[in-house]
Amino acid sequence: MKSNSPIHRAVANAAIALPFALLFWSVLCGPAMAAVLAPKEGEEAGPKVWPVDATKHVVVIKRDATDAKQTAMITAAESAQADKEVLRKAVEARNPNDPVDPAQAKQAKVPEGDKVWWYQEQLGIRIPCAVTGEAVRYYSDLVARNATKEFKSYAMPSSRVDYHAVVQFHKEFKLDDKTFVDVNVVTLKLGFSANFTAEATSGIQFEKNRIVILDAANKVLHVSGDGPTEVPVMML
């Protein structure tokens, strides 16, 4: 089964001015985006209160496993933790346009903990270095909470997480200049967007993919895709 979630690429942390921002963001997010409402006659311009609307906050989780063995493979791939060195390099590779003081960015450290999958935060939202089970739960819980809240913003708030995990067996598989024989390849795809939920005038979106190669005993042989994530930021 194939994931229908589109892949969008954009320059990280781009602050785009209105009205071009609205056109750009609507292309990225499709129906999730709503036009900024002009104030009615006699009303002052400003953010409005948007009531609880669960239909604007969507969680889609797909783990395509044909049997218990493939379920165990997906679990093994999701349980593979990000390498500490990869996390450190992701922190150091913070984009120069990141809205953080350069001196502060230089002092940034890898988040503490045993199952750290993120390397920084933007708009108060964790940005992934690796797609793990903990990452999927974090974004799913975040969107689920949004579905129970009202927001005060300049445009309709919305959020969405799409996650798709699939397993394929390969007699021979080449990746990152390496060749693997008789392996199971688990592909994890995570997409997330949050529009006018963390802040009244801002939104973010990203997609993160991870490939985990397992042997017959579900031992992790190789992980590809971990590292910094491109995160376009739209600001009205």
Major sheet summary line: 6 strands, mixed
Which parts are unreliable, with pLDDT below 50 for 5 consecutive residues or more? 1-35
Q: Helix/strand/pairing class, anyone?
A: alpha+beta
Termini separation = 37 Å
Number of strands: 10
Q: Name the beta content range.
A: 25-35%
Output the helix-strand order: HEEHHHEEHEEEEEE
Count of the domains: 1
Question: Helical residue percent?
Answer: 10-25%
Task: Give a written overview of the molecule.
The protein has one domain. The two termini are 37 Å apart. With 236 residues, the chain is an alpha+beta fold. Helix content is 21%, strand content 34%. It has helices at residues 20-29, 68-79, 84-92, 102-106, 133-146; strands spanning 48-50, 57-64, 118-122, 125-128, 151-153, 158-175, 178-195, 202-214, 220-224, 233-235. Mean pLDDT is 83; it is low at 1-35. The longest helix has 14 residues, at 133-146. The protein has five helices and ten strands. The strands form three sheets. Strands 2, 6, 7, 8, 9 and 10 form a six-stranded mixed beta sheet that branches. The protein has a two-stranded antiparallel ribbon with strand order 1-5.
